[in-house]
Amino acid sequence: MPEVIFRLDSNKKFKDQETLGHNRWHPEIPPVATVKPGDVFRVDCREWFDGAIKNDDSAQDILQAPLLTVHTLSGPFGVEGARPGDLLVVDILDVGPIPQEDSGPLAGQGWGYTGIFAKNNGGSFLTDQFPDAYKAIWDFTGQVATSRHVPGVAFEGLIHPGLMGTAPSAALLAKWNKREGDLIATDPLRVPPLALPPEAEHAVLGGLPADQWARVGSEAARTAPPRENGGNQDIKNLSKGTRIFYPVFVDGANFSVGDLHFSQGDGEITFCGGIEMGGFIDLRVDIIRGGMETYGVSENAIFMPGRVEPQFSEWLAFSGTSVTLDGEQRYLDSHLSYQRACLHAIDYLAKFGYAPEQAYLLLGAAPVEGRLSGVVDIPNSCSTIYLPTAMFDFDIRPSASGPHQIDPGIGAPRADNA
Amino acid sequence: MPEVIFRLDSNKKFKDQETLGHNRWHPEIPPVATVKPGDVFRVDCREWFDGAIKNDDSAQDILQAPLLTVHTLSGPFGVEGARPGDLLVVDILDVGPIPQEDSGPLAGQGWGYTGIFAKNNGGSFLTDQFPDAYKAIWDFTGQVATSRHVPGVAFEGLIHPGLMGTAPSAALLAKWNKREGDLIATDPLRVPPLALPPEAEHAVLGGLPADQWARVGSEAARTAPPRENGGNQDIKNLSKGTRIFYPVFVDGANFSVGDLHFSQGDGEITFCGGIEMGGFIDLRVDIIRGGMETYGVSENAIFMPGRVEPQFSEWLAFSGTSVTLDGEQRYLDSHLSYQRACLHAIDYLAKFGYAPEQAYLLLGAAPVEGRLSGVVDIPNSCSTIYLPTAMFDFDIRPSASGPHQIDPGIGAPRADNA
Amino acid sequence: MPEVIFRLDSNKKFKDQETLGHNRWHPEIPPVATVKPGDVFRVDCREWFDGAIKNDDSAQDILQAPLLTVHTLSGPFGVEGARPGDLLVVDILDVGPIPQEDSGPLAGQGWGYTGIFAKNNGGSFLTDQFPDAYKAIWDFTGQVATSRHVPGVAFEGLIHPGLMGTAPSAALLAKWNKREGDLIATDPLRVPPLALPPEAEHAVLGGLPADQWARVGSEAARTAPPRENGGNQDIKNLSKGTRIFYPVFVDGANFSVGDLHFSQGDGEITFCGGIEMGGFIDLRVDIIRGGMETYGVSENAIFMPGRVEPQFSEWLAFSGTSVTLDGEQRYLDSHLSYQRACLHAIDYLAKFGYAPEQAYLLLGAAPVEGRLSGVVDIPNSCSTIYLPTAMFDFDIRPSASGPHQIDPGIGAPRADNA
Amino acid sequence: MPEVIFRLDSNKKFKDQETLGHNRWHPEIPPVATVKPGDVFRVDCREWFDGAIKNDDSAQDILQAPLLTVHTLSGPFGVEGARPGDLLVVDILDVGPIPQEDSGPLAGQGWGYTGIFAKNNGGSFLTDQFPDAYKAIWDFTGQVATSRHVPGVAFEGLIHPGLMGTAPSAALLAKWNKREGDLIATDPLRVPPLALPPEAEHAVLGGLPADQWARVGSEAARTAPPRENGGNQDIKNLSKGTRIFYPVFVDGANFSVGDLHFSQGDGEITFCGGIEMGGFIDLRVDIIRGGMETYGVSENAIFMPGRVEPQFSEWLAFSGTSVTLDGEQRYLDSHLSYQRACLHAIDYLAKFGYAPEQAYLLLGAAPVEGRLSGVVDIPNSCSTIYLPTAMFDFDIRPSASGPHQIDPGIGAPRADNA
């Protein structure tokens, strides 16, 4: 086991740990540890809601999930010699649930969860069709996930960090706040909101002196979106063996990591769509001096996925176009066409006996592929979603004999949107 | 070789063939042939511009490409016993360039082309950055494509039909015309246009009696977009061995096929972004009686990709978010985030010596994957594009030693947007 | 289609073609054509028995298969500038059944065959357990093979040439004759024989002057085994996209090709175990000057398989050790342990209702993998055989519910060993 | 973490642990623990030489490796309700090096080793060409192995147990002793020996009463070979996610496991050819009642490999035939043809600057594939070995520019055969 440079005790809350992490992006949050290029080390990660979501059969916790407190990030970690303009090379050597703990109240202790967020508390990709809150608990057996709330499926996890990135410079942070503020201003009362402004009350700012928290918290960026620094990209393919290259914006790079997922489908469509968990990640870092200019990487991560992703040779795929459910034609809207492809998959799975929300939770959590198949054929973009057929206990393919009927079991817990 | 039920002579134009195909969707276009469930047969296909694009080093033909004449479809083919509400099962047994002809003036005779369309003639996914017309000619050697216009790469084709679908019913056609007309009406003079209305002058309507062409042509749908019937989905994964399920809207299903591609990247981003060619396709059809209701497939195709796609184990991937190049924050716009990911890939490849348009043409033509990685992390969606590293003759990975410099050669022919 | 440099008319026997091929290895057989490094060309190939095996339900033809006449090779082809000591680079650009002919009396016209040879006529890998002759006819639908003689399975072909190689020098030929003669001499009457000595009567020697046939035929090597020059290696992975490197032993390399297989399992265990067919192969050649010494390749081919092999993600595997069926312990005998693994697979498949010979024919023809898993654990080697589960129409996996029972249909035709 | 039912303390020798395992097969060795069908549990495993091999730069320890003491097995584990005739279903949920220990003197603490055994101490697959002892130490970084003794390569481990199996019945044990004794008797003084007879002095027999050790030790089977019960099969594909079915010969099945490998090539050709290590394995067991008869599995394991093996899309392969290095023709000897293929690979790698023993060690340890390509083409079988090209830091492919030259570094430690 590599040296643990950020350790978490499963019996303590995130804010009570020996070393305090953070839940906002800001250049003034000091590194909790510093590593050298070439170093290999382990980082513990807390699940993004710090234990608020329980391993039970109620969705009340999802309904009331404390979105102001996320994400509970480990870091920042400084890298000796890193300077703005460099590329930070991060190798994900290993990543998994909390080691040696396979039962307990904390997601990552042998289990994880997927949530569909209620429309009034964040919403989701299909929030108009699914305004209420739902939850699925997934149990881990080796690398395989199964759920009492979504029967009939079992799949190998594509374990990855949902969120990793470098600290923004002050100038970059200002740019974020300006552009996101401008967007919010176009419809400030929208539900769900268009974006999340800085919020000081629930900000956690690591080792920053206490007298600075109010000021910094009022300007620090929320961690929900991915941005130039990487961030909450939720790219399911950042699994073991992946090498990622991040732009460096501050001396030392100051990168952070968190929001581990045991698995996730492309898009993380239920919002809390991966299988959320705490755990560990083993990393190795390096620097390409001046790499941002040399390789033209001014923003966003580039990466090379690892070689040990679960392999599936058979898929069942659904397509969608950019026409709304109401029949309105939109112009080349890939977001919409992916929504329609997902809805088609849900309609299909419902014919096998799944409740629509069970199907939706499955698409959020399982290693499904979402592709931008056609983006130029005016006025309709075409998006596609691919489900590995091997994850089903039964034959999911269309045939003359009609769909097999599953027993949906106890179903997915639900809590009404308030 | 299965029986050819739609034969094309490479020496004749599409309209001069013994059997006339069509280039519009309309329920009244009569089948050119009828097959039974279980039948296996071959269909010849003409490239979508019917020979207007030449194997030369000028992009003048792309600049003036006759968009009103497309797509030159083979069919319709009736299926005995198919009725509205059924699912039409189509197996792609084989598909390839024009058999036994590997040189000649017609795309598909040993070569194909990729075009970036000029802004005033259709445009493309990145038309604001690339307003002019460009062309790349690809030579086929076995299943491998190479180009004198894009040096340093070679890749196995993921050969597929860009367009396949069933005939719309009159009611469905009316719905299309209404909703697309409504969209056009919001900005009728837009360049490029929002959508393409019916157009009778260049309509080709197969065996429809001549006195009906004016009326039918004035209401028949253009073939550019994918719609409920499948159509121009440009899904690169519909390659050999794929089984597709189409909704049936008229008696006999009346399905048509065309727009073959030797290869294509996800999105077909240069508009004419696959490697366009004529060729053949061997099909087998079957029916799932009442399958639309049984399986909840009311629209759009569902499919199971084949098992012989080219395999790549290493990829270099780029990510993008929904912030415009001008810095404006957009709300969860996956179309935009994919544009940004593509632009990042182009910026990167430019550092190796490629002209930006060469990189763009490559992304359109090569088997790159485009994924909707994050679609819920407000306000930024995250899209990713994956390039197989093995298609480059040199090491494309970032490293401390900096990018290898290619010789860009004669470059991609260009014609200025008029 | 590349230029055809060796053309075969399906209506004529191998010896009656315009250009005569050969069925023996000898340095004096003159090239039928000469190509340059970099050239791309097509070669037609006749199935190895020149039409003796029929598409019917009798195994009488397999029982009496004319082994003295094989293999009907296309070539030799000279390569300009190739000299002894070079490596001949051969790219398999494409390979398939007889183009544009999908029915007819010749294997390759839409069908192929697998035979279990009788013990008195060649035998097979499991000849003691299967002394009689059996046949299975396979029908090609696109790249998929199915058989009325082996129901319940369908698989994508891994199409390849069973035999390709360069001409031996006179010295190398003498070495072959010496060592194989020495082996035969140890048991000259063995049935099946240990090896096949030169045989002049049925030798076909291409363009060699008629007055030389008797002499050359009496010293030319039979084509059954693989040897230093490549030859009948029956490596199933030499499929489309493969690059092979052969040692060059004579000026011009003089390479030949034949024995095409639509598919084959590792080992080609039924002797005539691939799915035998005629067809075409498109090749490109090049030379690495002095490559034998530079790369230490003094004999046998080295190769890089292509990227479009059928992909299977689930396999059912069987293991065997080097103990005979009679219980005798042999010392690290991987040949025996593979026989035992194959017999275990046959025993297993028999429980699903297959006749043992049906199972045996399937293992010979389908894309099964045979691996040398353990070769040092005295006294038992361990070999394993892997069957892709997706090729079965039913669930082939072991479970508490017991094996599904197939209808074995008409079974595999049989002819008693005489 | 599942419950540990067999725990090992890294600071104690195998014989000093709280629970004692075994190193011989015998039906009277009592279970150390009993599990129920469906149970999930963890077993610690000690590396096969119990710490005798050091992480240093000398091969003296390999030269003198104590072969009489192996293998240090964990178990036996009884399964409630298992009876002779059943199939024991074993799911490998996870397997890896010693958790939370990445440095220390014991293989599995962040490192492992590969040894070429000296001819007088066990020998190896190519012992005539490599009579001396050699060693390579591999360091683990995440799932990747690298070695100071074999530079220029890095590969993902295909982690698996080399040895797992059920206890033999008394009758089966007697059969083993008889047949192996008969073999030994044919050449009792052979070096290396043909097989290993029972040996009581170094036998470790778990919880068997002390007064029984002499008798049982004198008849218990050595663990070197694979046999009807599974045993030391060294099948590299038994990695995470694999389901294995073992015949049951005694009440409770009494299965044992050990000999973990971080990686291994097909054949484990250097004898101690995998990357040897201690570690843990998480298992789940089940029973198919009467499965041996139902599925025709009278002996040897059948299995379904997992879905997370490292993926490689490009390979460089070598072939060999059954002619000895001295030029003697052998009859269809796949063991020999695989030796020749391995030697060809070694010859090739030597041209890049590797010492032959470095190449040999690499073939033993890396995830190379060994296939029985042709087994019927008299008199030559054809075996092939496939090396993933991506594991090399440099371009390993043949080309006109000749082989890249590596720096072989300090080389592999050697100790002369005594």
Automatic annotation (TrEMBL), chains A, B, C, D:
Pfam families from the UniProt entry: FmdA_AmdA
InterPro entries associated with the record: FmdA_AmdA, FormamaseFmdA
One MF term in the entry's GO annotations: hydrolase activity, acting on carbon-nitrogen (but not peptide) bonds, in linear amides
Name of the protein described by the UniProt record: Formamidase
